[in-house]
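Dear colleagues,

As part of the handover before I leave the project, I'm documenting each prediction I ran so the next person doesn't have to rerun anything. This entry is a single chain, and its sequence is reproduced below.
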Amino acid sequence: MSAMMGAMGIGAESRGSEQDHLSLRLWLRLLTCETLIEHHVRDRLRDRFDITLPRFDMMAQLAREPKGLRMSELSRRLMVTGGNVTGLTDQLVAEGLVVRRSIRDDRRAYNVRLTPKGKRQFDAMAAQHERWIVDLLGELTGDERESIYHLLGHLKAAVAAKREGGGEQPR
């Protein structure tokens, strides 16, 4: 039902109107699409694997780095506070999915990595996650997906350039 309501315009897009600048409407549409996809994935992860999206995201970062990551790097990559990373790590350690070890050169820092059990569990979740995303975007043709991918790449580069430039540009 929430997906249907979102598709009908309830959500971020409902905050805009046809009189708004096209750029604002585009931003709201992007936000709505991201929110709909995120909610779908969040619900499926909870129902199928009894895991939260933040815990999945942390495990995804660790899966890319078999030797592990410093907690500060996890915080940066996940764009959350160190306290949030500590809480997620505590939960995953308790379940035997990650290990946390102090770093010899810096006793205040910790390295976190997936355990073999955590790697197996993440691999199963990641495979299912990919199937969910493929299914969600399955209504688009391959050419449409390719086009959107390239256009969003261009948008990403343009936004990054504006941020690096630091100034607001006139219309």
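The first strand starts at residue 69 and ends at 70. The chain has a mean pLDDT of 90.

All the best with the project,
I.
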